[in-house]
Design goal:
The complex is a heterodimer of chains A (about 280) and B (about 800). Chain A has about 280 residues and is mainly beta. Chain A has 2 helices and 16 strands. In chain A, the strands form 3 sheets. In chain A, strands 6-7-3-2-16-15-12-13 form an 8-stranded mixed sheet, covered by helices on one side. Chain A has a 4-stranded antiparallel sheet with strand order 5-4-8-9, with no helix packed on it. In chain A, β8 and β9 form a beta hairpin. The mean pLDDT of chain A is about 85. With about 800 residues, chain B is mainly beta. Classes of the chains: A mainly beta (about 280), B mainly beta (about 800). At the A-B interface, α1, β1, β13 and α2 of A face α1, β44, β45, β49 and β50 of B.
Chain lengths: ~280, ~800
């Protein structure tokens, strides 16, 4: 939230003076050769596994990026053995028998156009999302669609509550979604990566959507428990994409071999709250 | 997330009292004491000259009592003998017993002659009358005509406010930074950014001084204006190389801005009314010929235009700044003069009562000039300087306030010892106590979160001597010795070389307890060899050390940029620069030409790791990476100093690179400020007694930046892939500005003028930023969007003076 205040401070003032002078220009870029992009997620405990492979495209190429359907995709785990995933022809690869089970470690082996890529990810036991609580909040950022609101409707923030297990080096991502019954076309998303290293074994209360949820909204929150490699990918993906950053860069991949993307074994717990 | 980790951390640092002067002195390192004693010893050794006497005193403007800097006292009977006044208008000259004709000169003033019989030490003050108006108009500096060739100063640009007044500027608001950036070696950081780059150095490597006080954020209105109100300024000097030993603390340059003293002869009111700002200055004597004051104020009202906006939020917005300069001086006795100067400025941006953002500087300087003897001049200064910003939003129990600041208490003692003909020894000491508040947040009146405060002590001692080796050769040799100590209370982390936090290896310092101390010598040498009466060659070597750095979150300067001190993790930056130059004047000093080359090597340079997070980050040091840098270039400068048509052309060709083992895979890369070509042309034409027309043109290579080199999809969203660091460039920058000033008829007690100016005459869209975003029609189609700030801005200002 504080970072939002900073953004508002900087950007809004600039917008005052600059909005009139934006123009799409013809800018020559030096395109790099295509690189594989791997999105590999094994979700537990309900075991939803999908590995998606595509390629990078030229910066100004407007076509959908090319999908890779002829890769060799193998995931192995000590007790279940090695499973060669099957392609669905849409860039997705699904397991034949492998399950995503908390407490196990998964190894990825990929071969794309003769080049090999490997990764490893540990799936921790899901950290239970204990509760979601509501508190009134009147942040100015929440007022965006106030014209749709009925008289007497109030602004809130949602706080998530959970306990960090002291004995595992886990990291978190909170994925939250607000469904506004009056504006179902544009649900609000909010992803936050949390680094609990300084709060090991403690109770964690994390506020979301300050003032951006209203009476009658439904808020769905997923708490993903991640290992460091997956956490670092998500975190750097978010921070690296600001074109105003002083040092824009690419997200840190946990896959070896020179590609983009990640391989994560992730356990999830969920909670939903409807605001009356 | 950092913000939530911090919630459970207690702020160790509590408000600490300011250390007394005595405490600071106690803290001086042993080496500094040694240097000071050495300096005193030198002074005692060289204090006696048999059969010689000293003439000393002040030289002032007869009309307003302003001290004249760099005015000359020459002896008609002794060619090559003379002295020039220092920055307080004081001179001292020691010559053998005899009868002489003294000539006192300053360009733009009538020369005064006086015959003296010298058989004892003499105190002689002079007041010079301005020469005819026409001459004053065309000769723009108070310097000796061939100073460019004969002085040891190189890599130095001096400008008076009269000179700056003629150069066209944005919104008709005279701006020191923008004018200085029209000279070679100094490069404007770009539109909407009042910072500047000197010889490949970063914005934070420039020491900006206003009457000796450090100005930490010299920009107003998010960089569109500098904090210096031209009504309050007397003159400006930029040292790009060969930096004199009395200055330190920054690697690349010193911008020394001196405020007007105020008219000691009579009262005067002057001001200007412009499209977006107005200004007013009042000056006059406190006691005639004994003391004077000046108060000048400025206020912008750009936000009034927002009322016409169709955007509801903008209609409610306020955006303005004001600043106030004050200066007073009083002659306490023949040998003592006291000066008090201060600056206070604030920017304000707000949206009704929902959101407020204020930032600004405050500085204060109390100085005592004391003349110990005809040969020993002393200046003692107590200096305060602060920069802060606050952001507030929310109401009632949710009212949130963010505060960040840097604050300095500074004690400075300078001596100038006049050994004899043209030889001056300068020495002194300096101690600064810094307090850094990176960020603290209060909500509903209670402190909820704070990044730990930092405290530090920065000390320095210096000595320099200007020696005339022969009639042709002069050398200035100087040594500065500086130190920097971290001071508690606070908790400090130890980081691995790659920037990672080493868990469990942090340490605490108690209140007032010293942590890591850095120190080192900074030798400075400059020499001039005069080839003939119109040309010379010069060379200099300068080592500088810097203990503070500015972390900037965005490409342009921002009020929330953060100053951080050297620490157990951040090592002091060190630069070594060698420069050489050829200086030549033509046509009776009407034309000045110089060609300078430089090479600069930089150690412990800071850059940001990939995807660095600087805002509100307790562990901000872990976002930094260290490396080295180097810069080299050729600067050409041709200036026509007077005549109906005058002006200059400056051109720089240069290269600036950085290398860090932890950035760009260890390969060297262009620094952001790398700008191979930079051209500026300024022309001023005195069309008639009433009309002066001027124009300036700039062209430079676009800044280096990191651009995308591919795109891909993650989770169905389009994402860009970035190239290696700073391999792409903004389009080249170019711009033409024009200005015309009409001087109205003069009256006995007032005079007025109109200024018309056009900024960016041919409305070129210079890139402020380039972003790569999906188009509205197709999210798979990325497009490059250029944001340009100022296209063709006309302005009109009405200036007046009452006296």
């Amino acid at each position: 939230m504080y970072r939002n205040a900073y953004k508002l401070a900087g950007i809004a003032a600039l917008l005052l003076l600059t909005s009139a002078c934006q123009k799409v220009i013809d800018f020559k870029v030096a395109n790099t050769a295509p690189i594989p992009v791997i999105e590999g997620a094994l979700y537990g405990p309900d075991s939803t596994c999908n590995i998606h492979i595509s390629m990078t495209a030229d910066v100004f190429d407007s076509r959908e990026p090319d999908l890779v359907n002829n890769a060799l995709v193998t995931v192995s785990e000590a007790q279940q053995g090695s499973d060669t995933f099957m392609s669905d022809g849409q860039g997705n690869y699904h397991p034949r028998f492998l399950h995503a089970i908390p407490g196990r470690t998964y190894h990825l082996y990929l071969k794309i156009q003769g080049r090999e890529y490997t990764s490893v990810s540990e799936m921790f036991a899901p950290v239970n999302l204990d509760s979601l609580t509501l508190a009134p909040s009147n942040s100015i950022r929440g007022g965006g669609n106030s014209s749709r609101r009925a008289p007497g409707d109030k602004q809130y923030q949602v706080t998530t509550h959970f306990n960090d297990p002291a004995n595992h080096p886990v990291y978190y991502r909170l994925r939250a979604l607000v469904i506004d019954p009056l504006d179902s076309v544009k649900p609000k998303f909010n992803n936050n990566e949390l680094d609990p290293r300084f709060n090991r074994g403690k109770k964690i209360d994390y506020p979301l959507f300050r003032g951006r949820v209203w009476t009658r909204d439904t808020v769905r929150v997923e708490l993903e428990t991640l290992d460091f490699g997956t956490y670092e990918y998500y975190r750097t993906l978010r921070t690296s994409q600001s074109s105003n950053s002083i040092s824009p860069s690419n997200p840190t991949s946990n896959i070896k071999g020179g590609c983009l993307g990640y391989f994560g074994a992730i356990s999830v717990s969920r909670k939903t709250i409807i605001i009356n | 997330m950092r913000k939530f980790e911090l919630k459970n951390e207690k702020t160790i640092a509590e408000a600490t009292s300011v250390p007394s002067v005595a405490k600071m002195r106690n803290c001086m390192t042993l080496s500094m004491r040694t240097m000071f004693l050495f300096a005193i010893g030198l002074f005692l050794q060289i204090s006696a000259f048999a059969g010689k006497y000293t003439i000393s005193g002040h030289i002032k403007d007869a009309q307003n009592g302003e001290e004249l800097l760099g005015a000359l006292v020459v002896i008609k009977e002794l060619p090559n003998t003379g002295a020039s006044t220092n920055e307080y208008g004081f001179y001292s000259l020691t010559i053998p017993e005899g009868t002489y004709t003294l000539q006192v000169q300053s360009i733009g003033y009538k020369t005064q002659s006086q015959t003296i019989t010298l058989n004892q030490n003499l105190r002689l003050d002079f007041e010079l009358a301005e020469s005819a108006r026409e001459l004053k108009e065309v000769i723009v500096t108070a310097e000796k005509a061939d100073k460019n060739v004969t002085s040891t100063e190189m890599s130095t640009t001096k400008m008076t406010i009269q000179e700056m007044n003629k150069v066209p500027v944005l919104f008709g608001e005279k701006d020191i930074f923008k004018t200085i950036a029209l000279t070679p070696g100094v490069k404007a950081a770009g539109d909407g950014n009042s910072g500047f780059y000197v010889r490949g150095g970063g914005i934070d490597q420039n020491l900006i001084l206003l009457d000796e006080a450090t100005v930490y954020n010299a920009s107003h209105l998010l960089g569109f204006f500098s904090v210096f109100n031209s009504d309050a300024i007397k003159d400006v000097t930029v040292y790009k190389g060969g930096i004199p030993a009395q200055y330190g603390g920054r690697l690349s340059s010193v911008l020394d801005v001196k405020m007007n003293d105020g008219n000691s002869k009579g009262y005067k009111v002057s001001g200007g009314i412009g499209v977006i700002s107005s200004r007013l200055a009042i000056e006059g004597p406190i006691v005639k010929d004994k003391g004077s004051f000046i108060i000048s104020a400025r206020r912008t009202y750009a936000d009034q235009f927002l009322r016409f906006s169709s955007n509801e939020t903008l209609k409610k917005a306020s955006l303005y700044f004001y600043d106030l300069n004050l200066k007073a001086n009083y002659q306490l006795s023949k040998d003592n003069k006291l000066y008090l100067s201060g600056y206070f400025g604030k920017d304000h941006f707000g949206i009704e009562s929902q959101f407020g953002f204020q930032w600004g500087n405050a500085t204060g300087t109390l100085r005592l000039n004391h003349i110990f003897s005809d040969k020993l001049f002393s200046n003692t200064s107590l200096i305060y300087s602060k920069y802060d910003y606050t952001i507030n939003f929310g109401a009632g129990s949710a009212a949130t306030n963010i505060l960040s600041s840097i604050e300095d208490y500074n004690v400075k003692q300078d001596f100038q010892y006049y050994l004899g003909n043209y030889q001056t020894v300068k020495f002194g000491i300096n101690a600064i106590y810094h307090t850094f508040i990176p960020g603290s947040i209060t909500q509903g009146g209670t402190s909820t979160l704070a990044i730990m405060r930092r405290y530090a002590l920065e000390n320095a001692a210096y000595i320099s001597d200007e020696i005339t080796v022969s009639q042709r050769m002069k050398v200035v040799a100087g040594l500065r010795f500086s130190s920097f100590s971290m001071i508690g209370a606070g908790h400090f982390e130890n980081l691995a070389q790659n920037g990672d936090t080493l868990a469990g290896q942090g340490f605490n310092l108690g209140k007032g307890q010293f942590g890591k101390t850095y120190f080192g010598p900074e030798p400075r040498v400059a020499a001039t060899y005069v080839l003939d009466s119109t040309s010379s060659i010069k060379a200099s070597y300068t080592r500088t050390r810097q203990y503070l750095q500015l972390l900037s979150n965005a490409v342009a300067s921002n009020p929330t940029d953060l100053w951080v001190p050297a620490s157990n993790n951040i090592k002091p930056q060190v630069a070594d620069q060698i420069a050489g130059g050829y200086f030549r004047n033509f046509h009776n000093n009407q034309f000045e030409f110089s060609a300078e080359v430089y090479y600069k090597s930089l150690q412990n340079q800071i850059d940001y790791k990939d995807g660095a997070q600087l805002v509100f980050n307790q562990g901000v040091e872990s976002e930094l990476r260290y490396g080295k840098g180097w810069s080299y270039g050729l600067e050409l400068f041709l200036k026509k100093r007077f005549g109906k048509f005058n002006g200059w052309i400056g051109y720089t060709i240069s290269k600036t690179r950085r290398q860090s083992d932890y950035i760009n895979g260890g390969q060297s890369y262009n620094a952001r400020q790398d700008r191979p070509n930079d051209l500026s042309i300024v022309g001023i034409y005195e069309a008639s007694k009433r009309w002066t027309i001027s124009g300036s043109f700039v062209y430079y290579t676009g800044n280096a930046f990191t651009a995308p080199d591919a795109r891909y999809n993650v989770d169905g969203q389009s994402v860009v892939h970035y190239s290696q660091r700073n391999t792409a460039r903004f389009p080249d920058y170019h711009r033409l500005d024009l200005s015309a000033t009409r001087q109205n008829s003069k009256h006995k007690h007032y005079e007025t003028s109109w200024n018309f100016s056009i900024y960016n005459v041919y409305a070129h869209g210079n890139a402020y930023s380039i972003s790569f975003d999906p188009s509205d029609q197709n999210i798979n189609q990325l497009q490059a969007t250029r944001t340009a700030l100022f296209k063709l801005i006309p302005s009109i200002t009405y200036n007046f003076k009452f006296f």
